[in-house]
Design a protein that fits this description.
The chain has 2 domains: 7-227 and 398-413, Aldehyde Dehydrogenase, Chain A, domain 1 (3-Layer(aba) Sandwich), CATH 3.40.605; 232-375, Aldehyde Dehydrogenase, Chain A, domain 2, CATH 3.40.309.10. β1 (102-105) and β2 form a beta hairpin. α2 packs antiparallel against α5 and α10 runs parallel beside α11. By secondary structure, it is an alpha/beta fold. The strands form 4 sheets. A 6-stranded parallel beta sheet has the order 9-10-8-7-11-12, with helices on both faces. Strands 5-4-3-6 form a 4-stranded parallel beta sheet, sandwiched between helices. Strands 1-2-15 form a 3-stranded antiparallel beta sheet, with no helix packed on it. It contains 14 helices and 15 strands. 42% of the residues lie in helices and 18% in strands. It starts with 6 loop residues before the first helix and ends in a 7-residue tail after the last strand.
Length: 420
């Protein structure tokens, strides 16, 4: 390295070199070894719960942001146990690298196989939620990838403690050094070095707010697997069960309002809005929710605050809900297309035909029928955990688990064929 190189750039270069060596070894390890490492890492998280909690308390004490964002940062025994269980769940999944390959034979006798292979070195940039580091590590190890983690400065001590526990568990089983590395500094120059690390990092995955994702997409010289903001909608169709609509919407908005799968906008059919909207608002209001409503909704519930045009384009990440009355299912889909972020949308209805129409025509990464949008989660999808929610159109969409961190290569077997 040049003696004038920024310390953060030098640190990233060294970490990437270690990760590259680890990735080569990981790709050759049997699935049983990678799974044993994940189980041992889970045990290590449990063994170091007190140290992780102490580090998190230090981060939380210094945090000055909004309550919903604070909730993303907080760890407790249940959340630490969930991290550990997530690693164990990932270990129990089928190995994404050893599935039977697709094989075919050409007329000239060449036998061609398409086999799964790890991507290589993953760079993970995330904010607030310290459990993301453990989830990302587990998914990368399962799929044979090395990972460099850079959490937000607000979770610096939590991330370091989690990484120390993971590393202790992984090395016990003999995984190569450099398999999972944590940024040694909160300096933003380390992020810049990651984004410019073409040839050292194979894929960057940002997980955080809109500004982070936009910065990564604009500045990265490395391929990016990104998700836009989670501007999710729940649409109450004219044939919805009122009780179901009330129950599901309350969960979709307020279970954890600060996560990307939380519903940010309620759409409700004009045919049922006069009878049902007041009850929906009352449920949410009693649970501490605030609102931004269009003129049609305010004509039904006059106490609702008026929405600005920007409100329907806002990911609140808080106990705030945008509300709009729509004429029918096509109007709901049009609203989602105009304002949504292609993350997760749900329809509540007893009409199966209407539900299938919505599922087929709403072009988001995840569409749901009679379920809370907060189910958009790798663990809930059976992936053990997730490294993010991809909303783009290349390589992966929706929750990104072990399968989505593999790609393909080809093996060709011949008997001496030459090409004319």
């Amino acid at each position: 390295m040049d003696s004038a190189t920024h310390p953060a750039e030098a640190a990233l270069h060294e970490a990437a070199q270690r990760a590259r060596h680890a990735a080569r070894d990981l790709a050759r390890l049997p699935a049983a070894t990678r799974d044993a490492a994940l189980r041992q890492a889970a045990t290590s998280l449990r063994d170091h719960q007190a140290a992780i909690q102490h580090a998190n308390d230090r981060d939380v004490a210094a945090f000055t942001g909004a309550p919903a964002m604070r909730d993303r940062l907080v760890l407790n025994p249940a959340r630490i146990e969930a991290m550990a269980q997530g690693l164990a769940d990932i270990a129990a999944l089928p190995d994404p690298l050893s599935r039977d390959p697709e094989t075919w034979e050409r007329p000239n006798g060449l036998r061609i196989s398409r086999v799964r292979t790890p991507i290589g070195v993953i760079g993970m940039i995330y904010e607030s939620r310290p459990n993301v580091g453990a989830d990302a590590a587990g998914i990368c190890i399962k799929s044979g990838n090395a990972v460099i983690l850079r959490g937000g400065s607000e979770s610096f001590f939590s991330a370091a403690a989690i990484n120390a526990a993971l590393t202790e568990g992984l090395t016990t089983v003999g995984l190569p050094p450099g398999t999972v590395q944590n940024a040694p500094t909160a300096d933003r120059a380390f992020v810049a070095a990651m984004l410019g690390a073409a040839g050292l990092i194979d894929l960057i995955i940002p997980r955080g707010g809109k500004s982070l994702v936009l910065r990564v997409q604009q500045e990265a010289r490395v391929p990016v697997l990104a998700h836009a903001e989670g501007l999710c909608h729940t649409y109450v169709h004219k044939d919805a069960s009122p009780d179901m609509a009330r129950h599901v919407l309350l969960n979709a908005k307020l279970r954890r309002p600060g996560i990307c799968g939380a519903t940010e906008t309620l759409l409700i059919d004009a045919a049922v809005a006069p009878a049902l909207l007041p009850a929906l608002i009352e449920d949410l209001q009693n649970a501490g929710c605030a609102f931004r409503a269009d003129a049609s909704a305010r004509a039904i519930v006059p106490t609702l605050p008026a929405a600005t045009p920007q409100d329907f384009d806002t990911e609140w990440l808080d106990a705030i809900l945008s509300v709009a009355v729509v004429d029918d299912i096509d109007a709901a889909i049009a609203h989602i297309e105009r304002h949504g972020s292609c993350h997760t949308e749900a329809i509540i209805t007893e009409d199966a035909q209407a539900a299938e129409y919505f599922l087929a025509r709403t072009d988001s990464a995840v569409t749901m029928w009679n379920a809370s949008t907060q189910f958009c989660d790798g663990g809930e999808f059976g992936f053990g955990a997730e490294i993010g929610i991809a909303t783009g159109r290349i390589h992966a969409r929706g929750p990104v688990g072990p399968d989505q961190l593999t790609c393909f290569r080809y093996q060709v077997r011949g008997t001496g064929q030459t090409r004319k």
